[in-house]
């Protein structure tokens, strides 16, 4: 493997010899290509499978590893992933949500949950159920609730959609049980936003203008579309993503996974039909 300076763009790729790596690899390959990044491979098995063995098991891995950084293995896989991302100033981590045993409340296994709690950079979580099929980014779903925290996800979502030539679907969910955001700077939906004949058109234009202003100058060839759903946020995001055959859901997260916190993120993690890009609150 060639030596690569840490100032290069890197994407951390946890690998083992299980089926979850077969599901993650097509996603990681696309992310690395779009970001023009270098993979930083973290082997999560102990003892680690030799690199030639991984190449034999996953033939497509040979090209990916030509200029890869191979991180030192550690007893604690989550610690190894977090340290590799921190030391290499990585753009993101691309990993499976689980392998076999997963927690009922998050849909993650212990490794993925620990990485999510301590993540030093954005994390792309891949459902192993997707299998080894090629992965392209054609439709990106960006849920927004009008708060500055969720709006911070606009820039990376639009940048990714622009590089991929994908469409960006900005989704706002309203409902009878939805709590109006209290965060300073929030753009609160009008009372009748779920009824297009009322205040929806003007509010939607203002909402999209705000998203675009926060995103910088990233042309999206596939277009940016404002969409509306009515109901509980988690189920509606999943339903919308399924109905529009989304390839990626982008969520900004405040960093709390305690019981009764991050209910939307928890639901989406458990039921999402596609990979999820989770952005930490502090990510710029």
Automatic annotation (TrEMBL):
Residues 138-280 form the UspA domain. Pfam families: Usp. PANTHER family: STRESS RESPONSE PROTEIN NHAX, UNIVERSAL STRESS PROTEIN UP12. Belongs to the universal stress protein A family. This is Nucleotide-binding universal stress UspA family protein.
């Amino acid at each position: 493997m060639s030596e690569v300076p840490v100032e290069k763009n890197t994407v951390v790729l946890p690998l083992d010899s299980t089926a979850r790596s077969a599901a993650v690899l097509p996603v990681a390959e696309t992310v690395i290509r779009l970001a023009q990044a270098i993979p930083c491979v973290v082997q999560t098995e102990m003892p680690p499978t030799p690199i030639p063995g991984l190449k034999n098991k996953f033939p497509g891995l040979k090209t990916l590893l030509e200029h890869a950084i191979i991180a030192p293995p550690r007893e604690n896989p989550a610690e190894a992933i977090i340290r590799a991302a921190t030391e290499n100033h990585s753009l993101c981590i691309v990993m499976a949500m689980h392998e076999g045993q997963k927690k009922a409340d998050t849909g993650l296994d212990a490794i993925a949950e620990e990485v999510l709690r301590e993540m030093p950079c954005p994390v792309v979580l891949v459902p192993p159920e997707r299998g080894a099929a090629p992965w392209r980014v054609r439709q990106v779903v960006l849920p927004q609730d009008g708060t500055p925290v969720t709006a911070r996800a606009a820039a990376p979502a639009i940048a990714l959609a622009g590089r991929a030539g994908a469409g960006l679907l900005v989704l706002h969910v309203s409902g009878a049980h939805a709590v109006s955001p209290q965060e300073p700077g929030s753009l609160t939906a009008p009372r009748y936003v779920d009824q297009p004949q009322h205040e929806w058109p003007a509010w939607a234009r203002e909402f999209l203008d705000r998203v675009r202003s926060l995103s910088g100058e990233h042309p999206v060839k596939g277009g940016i579309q404002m969409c509306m759903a009515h109901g509980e946020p988690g189920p509606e995001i999943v339903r919308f993503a399924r109905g529009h055959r989304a390839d990626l859901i982008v969520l900004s997260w405040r960093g709390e996974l305690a019981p009764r916190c991050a209910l939307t993120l928890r639901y989406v993690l458990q039921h999402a039909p596609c990979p999820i890009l989770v952005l930490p609150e502090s990510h710029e």
